[in-house]
Structure formats: structure tokens, C-alpha cells
Amino acid sequence: QVQLVESGGGLVQPGGSLRLSCAASRNIVSIDIMAWYRQAPGKQREAVGSIATSGRTYYPKSLEGRTTISRTNADNTLHLQMTNLEPAGTGVYYCNARLLTFSGGSSNWDEYWGQGPQVTVSS
What are the residues facing 4 on neighbouring strands? Predict the structure, then answer.
């Protein structure tokens, strides 16, 4: 079964930094765009940023300058680093990826989500 497994998260001090990683399971043929999303309590899920296979990144203007997304194609891993976090950064952070998998003699592109670790920015 295809999985995206995240690590990191927990309690972060205001003004502190956050590091998350997301590892895709091995039974994957190819990976397209990978991204991070977050969902604050009572709010809709929002994009934190994304990265293409080429390494080209996209960040919302509100997060530019303090967000870095990277990926390691060799081991299908996605990383997120955020600095100068504010309490508004509290929420569940989700890894997202478009994956090509092979099963039953055919290959298919589908979108997958990680389990979403909780990040709390508080003193």
C-alpha cells in the first residue's frame, strides 16, 4: 500500500523553527509535484508551498522568505523548514504528493496525503 509517512512536529516556541519530513513508501514508480499544506483549527486547509521534480519551488507570498521546501528524489523524501513561526502557524501539517504506482499490471497517477502531524506554536 502506498503511504506518505511524516515525521517531526510538536511544540514550537514563537519565533522558533519547524522541520518536517515526509517519506514515500518504496513501491512507487515516479513522483510528480510534492507539497505541504496546513490546517489551523476551524479554518480551511491552505498551501504552505510546493516543489516540482526539477526542484522549482512555489510559496504563498505570506510565507516567502521564511519557508523552504526541498526534496530528495533518490529516496522519495520531502522536507519542510519554516523559521520565525507565529502562533497563527499552529495547525496540522500535511504532506501531499502526486505519485505513479504500479499494481496489477497497470500504472496509475493518484494524489496521496500524509497523516498530518500537529504543530503548536506557543510559549
Answer: 24
Task: Give the length of the chain.
Answer: 123
Q: Report d(CA 65, CA 82) in Å as an integer.
A: 9
Which of 46, 34, 57 is closest to 91 using CA atoms?
46
Alpha-carbon span 51 to 35, nearest angstrom: 6
Q: What is the pLDDT of residues 33-81, one digit of tens each?
A: 999 999 999 999 999 999 999 999 999 999 999 999 999 988 889 999 9
What are the cell numbers at 22?
Answer: 515526509
Q: Would you say 113 and 83 are in contact if contact means Cβ atoms under 8 Å apart?
A: no
CA distance 92 to 75: 24
